[in-house]
Amino acid sequence: xxxxTLPFEIKGPKLLQVIxxxxxxxxxxxxxxxxxSDDIALNAVMFDxxxxxxxxxxxxxxxxxxxxxxxxINPAITVNISGLQASTTAFSFHVPEILSFTPQRGTMxxxxxxxxxxxxxxxxxxVFIGDNELSYVNGVSPTEINGGIYFLSTKHSEKIxxxxxxxxxxxxxxxxxxxILTNGFPEPANT
Length: 191
Hints:
The chain is mainly beta. 2% of the residues lie in helices and 52% in strands.
């Protein structure tokens, strides 16, 4: 038999570097390595359990789009080619950045829109005004979060914070609450 006399080795993919190593959902990144397939369809790339779109492929480089709905700030990236795979955890998501919010002031029942960068479409974003978490967050994209305020604060002016796991992004401006709780009762704030 010919195969009994010829030594051969099937090489699996090697994943050596992720460029950039910090990115956001929807960003294109490069996976540098060896023994990738030139055929885009044969390279299956996962961020934990979320599939990524491969945009281009050579033997030493894959260009992929960071997928949404990844539940971890430091996901394992796995390249699988015909059952052979390589993984790395040399990647993390950007810290959320708050650029602006509207309205600038509000009270219980107000609807808040926060604009920024690197928000997570995964359901784990938490939004706070001071120490108070927004009662509900609906409508999340990498650049916008919408939510409702259903609390009265004990302070009339506080920063907004967006968190995902241990990452926190803060607003530069403070959100103003014209009504605050004093001794358990709402009163107008002197703003």
